[in-house]
Design goal:
- There is one protein chain.
- This protein is of the alpha/beta class.
- The chain has two domains: 3-79, no CATH class; 96-221, no CATH class.
- The protein is built from eight helices and five strands; from the N terminus they run H-H-H-H-H-H-E-H-E-E-E-E-H.
- A five-stranded mixed β-sheet has the order 2-1-3-5-4.
- Strand 1 (121-125), helix 7 and strand 2 form a beta-alpha-beta unit.
- The protein is elongated and about 70 Å long.
- 24% of the residues are buried.
């Protein structure tokens, strides 16, 4: 296949990059196109005539060296104990979101069951990561469908009007201030031995006595955490 027949793939990458920049998308939204770019570049390199000096260098050590440089950053290959002892060092943050979600849901459910007004309490999370994890693992534990004002998740679930209180999962409950009669900490998420985890140690808050309808309040809470 001639390279010109594949040019549309390159333009696709460019256009998607522009779209995600305009809509304030995350850097990894374009990750699905990376293998396409790598494959196109590899085919072009293999078909090309290498420089004379390059012909004397074996190519497989270069590939192996590239993999060794990339894997420690892209994959969770660091020892767990080392990551716990060095939390400030660069690490595969996205991998942390895959650790401790069931345990976090169990911890949040434990706090929820201790509430005296469970039937009138919504579960709202600071990020869509937390909301999706609680939706996946918390339903069987008695948690209601979680809501989050974070990014696009704000459009998926809006608490119903009969829910006057909120169990808030997140570090910053500031957006709730002024919209409830009371706000107090009630604990933290504990993922037990499932560490390092994105969830572990996340504060839990109880906001009680909603002072305005959700139809008015929810737009104020949407996208307050980015």
């Amino acid at each position: 296949m001639r390279s010109r027949e594949l040019r549309f793939l390159g333009w696709t990458v460019v256009l998607l990059t522009v779209v995600f920049l305009v809509v304030n998308g995350r850097f990894y939204y374009l990750a699905g196109m990376y293998p396409v770019c790598f494959a196109m570049a590899a085919v072009a390199l293999e078909r090309g005539e290498p420089a004379r000096w390059w012909r004397w260098i074996a190519t497989w050590p270069c590939y192996a060296l590239s993999a060794l440089l990339v894997l420690p950053v892209a994959l969770p290959v660091w020892p767990r104990a080392w990551l716990i002892e060095h939390p400030s060092l660069p690490s595969p943050v996205l991998a942390f979101t895959e650790i401790g979600s069931p345990e976090a849901a169990l911890s949040v459910a434990g706090a929820f069951t201790q509430l005296s007004e469970r039937a009138r309490t919504a579960v709202v999370t600071e990020t869509y990561w937390q909301a999706s994890a609680l939706d996946r693992y918390g339903r069987d534990l008695g948690l209601p469908e979680p809501a989050s004002g974070n990014r696009g998740y704000a459009t998926l679930v809006v608490p119903s009007e009969e829910l006057t209180d909120v169990l808030f999962v997140g570090a910053d409950p500031g957006p709730l201030l002024g919209h409830f009669a009371g706000l107090r900490p009630i604990g933290k998420v504990d993922t037990g031995a499932a560490k390092p985890s994105y969830f572990d140690g996340v504060p839990l808050w109880l906001a009680s006595g909603r002072t305005e309808p959700w139809s008015t309040l929810w737009p104020k809470l949407a996208n307050t955490h980015t």
